Amino acid sequence: MAGLRDVDLNLLLLFQHLLEDRNISSVARRLDLSQPAVSNALRRLRQAFGDELFVRTAQGMQPTPRAQRLAAPVSEALALLAGALQDQDAFAPAASTRRFRVAMTDVGEIHFMPRLIEVCAQVAPQARIDSVRMQGAELAREMEAGRVDLAIGAFDDMGAGVMQRMLFRQGYATLFRQAHPTAHAGMGLKAFRAERHLIVSRAAPYGQVNQSMERAGLDMAEHFSVPHFSAVPYIVSTTNLLATVPEKLAASAAPPFGLRFLTPPLKVPALQTNMYWQRRYDRDGGNLWLRGLIVDAFAVGR
Question: What is the DSSP string of 13-79?
Answer without folding.
Answer: HHHHHHHHH--HHHHHHHHT--HHHHHHHHHHHHHHHTS--EEEETTEEEEPHHHHHHHHHHHHHHH
